[in-house]
Amino acid sequence: MSIVALKNAVVTLIQKAKGSAGTSESGGSESTPLLRGSNSNNSRHDSSSSSSSDIIYGRNATLDLENSPMSVGKDNRNDDSGSNNEKAKLGLFQSVDPRVISDLIIGLSDGLTVPFALTAGLSSLGDAKLVITGGFAELISGAISMGLGGYLGAKSESDYYHAEVKKEKRKFYDNSNLINREIEDILLEINPNFSDETIVSFIKDLQRTPELMVDFIIRYGRGLDEPAENRELISAVTIGGGYLLGGLVPLVPYFFVSDVGTGLIYSIIVMVITLFCFGYIKTKLSMGSGSSTSKKVTEGIEMVAVGGVAAGAAWFFVKLLG
Q: How many C-beta atoms surround the C-beta of residue 208 within 10 A?
């Protein structure tokens, strides 16, 4: 999440907190800042004359016209129109979880490279049946291995997330002051000019909902998002399936020719086209409108070079040993 979006979320909660804090103070209660109690009186006196822009940008800050809400709104409208055009170009992919696309790219990248190198190496032995059999054996074992790796990786992320949530919940009930200091540190990272009263009001508002307080620390302090449901299974299927799909491409030509050398030539032609397209599309999906045509072409050429070097090395060493 960008710092602008984070600030907007914080400001929304601060405004709610200010309303609730004003109600409580009118009843005679008095708030004390958590870490800067010596300045609490000054903060309360200053708050009566400080404007909403002072709360957001600091009491002594001047309003920057380029960063004013009106100019930000205009920029957001321009950004929205650009993002809508980008989504229209991406079509189906804009509605897919970015993590799923990332896993698919990982599986396809390895699947297009490793089986291609293996089949190229086995083709130097001159036996088409050996190429197909060995290629399929590697393809199945590789897909299972990649899928298990994706499953374990996603499970580790999920375990770490829930462990952090459990730890923060324990802190909340054992030592709430420690949690308050963490939230204050997060707010001061966003804007060091936040007033004492603003921070205290924000924390008081969060304290009414412990789940929200923990979620705020996990999301903005730890930088963690809650894993999607069945994330482990989705990651395993996506990475393993991507590997299997990519690995089938270099094997296909050997089914239609009787001569291994001819099959290798056809496989190389197919893989050059496939690897280039994969590198081009991968860059377009990962970088979006920020990628130039030259960048996408360069990534496509790099994919061809990586696959070519791997296949050439495998062919050479198998030929040398055979």
A: 10
Model confidence at 322, pLDDT cuts 50, 70, 90, reads low
- C-alpha 274/C-alpha 219 separation (Å) is 39
- Side-chain half-sphere exposure of 5, counting CA atoms within 13 A: 5
Note the pTM of the prediction, 2 decimals. Answer: 0.62
- Please state at what angle helix 128-174 crosses helix 176-190, rounded to 10 degrees: 110
- Cβ 224 vs Cβ 218: under 8 Å: yes
pLDDT per residue as tens digits for the range 215-251: 888 888 877 878 888 889 999 999 999 999 999 999 9
Per domain, the residue ranges of the chain are 96-158+231-321
d(CA 65, CA 60): 16
Q: What's the rounded Cα separation, in Å, for the pair 215 and 9?
A: 13
Cβ–Cβ under 8 Å, residues 122 and 311: no
The secondary structure of 92-161 as a DSSP string is: GGGGS-HHHHHHHHHHHHHHHHHHHHHHHHHHTTT-HHHHHHHHHHHHHHHHHHHHHHHHHHHHHHHHHH
CA neighbor of 240 nearest in space, from 153, 124, 119: 153
Residue corresponding to tokens 């002051």? 177
State the CB neighbour count (10 A cutoff) for residue 152.
Answer: 13
Of the ranges 30-39, 40-49, 129-138, 188-197, which is most confident? 129-138
Give the single-character DSSP code of 290: G
Here the tokens at position 105 are 């790219």
